[in-house]
């Protein structure tokens, strides 16, 4: 009897032991699965930001030459920059493409891009503009100043601070209405929200040009990966967006370093960023540092024509026409913050033209402050 009891107790212990062993094994298997699951979650999150290229299932994967439909290049769909040498060499900005702009602080990136926005509208292309650093009203002030030009800029008691008469401001606003959309920063700077908002703006307002100024001001914390992976993912995503939505995207990315002569390899992120871009432009302000650097780097002499400009755009990559190592010099007009092709250039935008394209002489009617 005693022996039977002992055997029963022993069997129960054995069963408990096996159950425990099984539980431990299950737990171990779950633990082993953890990195696999983490990898899966990471990939899923990553694809939220960088969706794989969608395969068009109704088309063959490889095409024979006769099956490839020739798409005629429609030059009326190329967006001019208004910068003469640039437009002559690269024709303009193609839809479905991405341009990266870099340059040190104060080199003129934002100002050139707001002028590009005006130029685009002037050629009947609609623009969506995101500025992470300036509130919409400040962006609008700059654009108004550039749109008005020196003839309407009234000096104030502050150096380099000019105002525009209300009547001119209103005319410019009305002209830009329905063509220029400026992101309202009060909606936050979270990258996925901003991209979603841009996508909606493109769909709702027939946008042709998107300007994103700049990478550093976007909040990438919701995206997985290290800093450079996140930046690269974003650029790949924007490149895809330009193709899907048939827009040109201008994207500002600051350089990693703030001293020395800026080169393409100094742009923040990995090399994948510049690989993904169709154009890569560097902005330089022609100060003494720049002049010394180009003399040292390229062996240019003091009489090089570049020395006389105020700002220079360096084209370091242009995939379409293969332009590179081209320097485009510009003159800066402090009253209007405009960049000019020649020191005495006078440009008239659409807001001061009538239906036939003739310029209205509004300035004669406006009383100017002495
Ligand atoms: N050559 C120049 N001479 C004088 N002022 C200039 C020149 N180029 C640009 N500026 C002015 O300098 C200020 C800074 O320019 P802007 O903001 O366009 O530069 P940025 O490259 O975008 O700078 P950041 O990287 O700090 O955003 C603006 O008021 C602009 O009008």
From TrEMBL:
<dbReference type="GO" id="GO:0006260">
    <property type="term" value="P:DNA replication"/>
</dbReference>
<dbReference type="GO" id="GO:0005524">
    <property type="term" value="F:ATP binding"/>
</dbReference>
<dbReference type="InterPro" id="IPR003593">
    <property type="entry name" value="AAA+_ATPase"/>
</dbReference>
<feature type="domain" description="SF4 helicase">
    <location>
        <begin position="72"/>
        <end position="346"/>
    </location>
</feature>
<dbReference type="InterPro" id="IPR027417">
    <property type="entry name" value="P-loop_NTPase"/>
</dbReference>
<dbReference type="InterPro" id="IPR027032">
    <property type="entry name" value="Twinkle-like"/>
</dbReference>
<dbReference type="InterPro" id="IPR007694">
    <property type="entry name" value="DNA_helicase_DnaB-like_C"/>
</dbReference>
<protein>
    <submittedName>
        <fullName>AAA domain-containing protein</fullName>
    </submittedName>
</protein>
<dbReference type="GO" id="GO:0003697">
    <property type="term" value="F:single-stranded DNA binding"/>
</dbReference>
<dbReference type="Pfam" id="PF03796">
    <property type="entry name" value="DnaB_C"/>
</dbReference>
<dbReference type="GO" id="GO:0043139">
    <property type="term" value="F:5'-3' DNA helicase activity"/>
</dbReference>
């Amino acid at each position: 009897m005693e022996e039977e009891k002992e055997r029963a107790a022993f069997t129960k212990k054995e069963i408990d032991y096996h159950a425990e062993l099984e539980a431990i094994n299950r737990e171990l298997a779950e633990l082993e699965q953890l990195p696999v699951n983490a990898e899966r979650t990471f990939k899923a999150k990553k694809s939220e930001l960088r969706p794989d290229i969608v395969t068009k299932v109704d088309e063959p994967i490889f095409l024979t030459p006769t099956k490839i439909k020739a798409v005629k290049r429609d030059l009326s769909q190329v967006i001019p920059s208004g910068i003469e040498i640039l437009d002559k060499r690269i024709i303009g900005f193609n839809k479905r493409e991405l341009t990266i702009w870099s340059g040190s602080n104060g080199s003129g990136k934002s100002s050139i891009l707001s002028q590009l926005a005006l130029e685009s509208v002037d050629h009947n292309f609609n623009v969506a503009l995101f500025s992470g650093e300036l509130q919409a009203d400040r962006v609008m002030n700059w654009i108004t100043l550039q749109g008005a030009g020196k003839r309407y800029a009234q000096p104030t008691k502050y150096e380099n601070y000019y105002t525009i008469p209300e009547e001119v401001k209103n005319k410019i606003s009305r002209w830009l209405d329905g063509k220029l959309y400026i992101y309202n920063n009060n909606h936050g700077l979270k990258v996925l929200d901003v991209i979603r908002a841009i996508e909606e703006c493109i769909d709702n307002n027939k946008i042709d040009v998107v300007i994103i100024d700049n990478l550093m001001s976007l909040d990438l914390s919701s995206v997985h990966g290290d800093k450079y992976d996140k930046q690269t993912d974003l650029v790949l995503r924007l490149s895809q967006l330009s193709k899907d939505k048939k827009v040109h995207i201008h994207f500002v990315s600051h350089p990693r370093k703030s001293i020395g002569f800026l080169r393409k390899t100094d742009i923040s992120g990995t090399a994948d960023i510049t690989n993904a871009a169709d154009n890569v432009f560097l902005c330089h302000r022609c100060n003494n540092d720049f002049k010394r650097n180009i003399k040292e780097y390229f062996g240019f002499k003091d009489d090089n024509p570049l020395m006389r400009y105020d700002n220079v755009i360096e084209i370091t990559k242009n995939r379409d026409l293969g332009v590179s190592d081209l320097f485009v010099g510009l003159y800066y007009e402090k009253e209007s913050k405009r960049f000019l092709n020649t020191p005495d250039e006078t440009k008239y935008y659409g807001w001061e033209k009538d239906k036939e394209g003739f310029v209205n002489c509004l300035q004669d009617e406006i009383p100017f402050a002495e």
